Predict the structure.
Amino acid sequence: MKKITGIMACDPDGVIALNNKLPWHYPQEIEFYRQSIANHCVILGYKTFIEMTAEFTEHHYTVVFTSKPQQSRQQNVHYVSGLEEFKKLRLPADKKCFMIGGAQLAKYFLQHNLLDDFILTIINNRYAGDTFFPLELITNWPRKLLQQNADFAIYHYFNPTSESHSQVDGI
Ligand SMILES: NC(=O)c1ccc[n+]([C@@H]2O[C@H](COP(=O)([O-])OP(=O)(O)OC[C@H]3O[C@@H](n4cnc5c(N)ncnc54)[C@H](OP(=O)(O)O)[C@@H]3O)[C@@H](O)[C@H]2O)c1
């Protein structure tokens, strides 16, 4: 299967959202995220998808996981009901593939060992939240620090069971 990289941000306790919004605003972190996934393929859960702008989906080959059958009105947007349908998709060969969340989809991809590596930003401050990244599922993965400042650190985690992970240049 094509290499898939997770990319998300959480606080030290795994918080990723409060009331369907990011609890923090760090423009430099958002810029890193935007540049990393720009024009590539993104895989996301339905709850995360409904918050995305039309502009976002225009610029990414978008795969949305949902159990409810959907008719896509955008050429770039593909709905899948689960792993079986996902594996039938012909993901563009010239694009990288990123699983961008939310928590439910990240947990599913990690539990099914579908990710080769993970770019995870850990925000330094603690925030109130209602949605949590399953940190316990990657704590055993070796990691490399990509960037650090007073607000956050960005780590590249490598799935120890994956054969296709790249140790070069972070992503
Ligand atoms: N901090 C970050 O890096 C980050 C990243 C992304 C999102 N977020 C935040 O996370 C929140 C959403 O996360 P979430 O965990 O609540 O939801 P989510 O993972 O985005 O979406 C959950 C929905 O995706 C579908 N889904 C998930 N796994 C599936 C599977 N295996 N098969 C079929 N469908 C599946 C289901 O849709 P149906 O109900 O339609 O079946 C499910 O209700 C938002 O507030 C967003 O802002 C934060």
Remarks:
- The CA atoms of residues 12 and 124 lie 7 Å apart.
